[in-house]
Write a structure and sequence with these properties.
The chain is α+β, with helices and mostly antiparallel strands. Helices cover about 35% and strands about 20% of the residues. Strand 3 and strand 4 form a beta hairpin.
Length: about 120
């Protein structure tokens, strides 16, 4: 998913069509920004081949929205210095989300899953 229309699609995956159905209006901006950060990181750091796929999965219960991105590259922790121009995606996600982390890929697959969750809140 390294083509511009796919990036745009992923950025709008938690879109205005879903808040009314799932009552997510109060957390929509945070969900879109966190999804954008994770997707941009996956494209920039995890996608080595134009044929690589980055999967975005949205799951919603009455209590939380969980967004998971799966890509074909194992996690590579790195240190971000104060003068670094990039690398703050995980910090942005941590600041926005109620919880976040990484999981191993599905059995037989390679790579990783990065996810975050937001508690469903009443609209303001």
């Amino acid at each position: 998913m390294k083509v511009p229309h796919s990036i745009r699609g992923a950025r709008h995956a938690p879109s205005p069509h879903r808040p009314n159905r799932w009552e997510l209006a109060a957390i929509l901006d945070d969900a879109v920004l966190a999804t954008d950060e994770l997707f941009a990181d996956a494209v920039r750091h995890a996608s080595a081949d134009p044929a690589d796929t980055i999967a975005v999965v949205l799951e919603c219960s009455e209590r939380e929205l969980r967004v998971t991105l799966a890509d074909p590259t194992p996690p590579r922790p790195r240190t971000v210095g104060p003068g670094s121009e990039s690398g703050r995606g995980p910090a942005v996600v941590a600041a926005l989300a109620d919880d976040w982390g990484t999981d191993p890929p599905e059995p037989g697959a390679v790579g990783k899953k990065v996810w975050f969750s937001l508690a469903v809140r009443e609209p303001m």
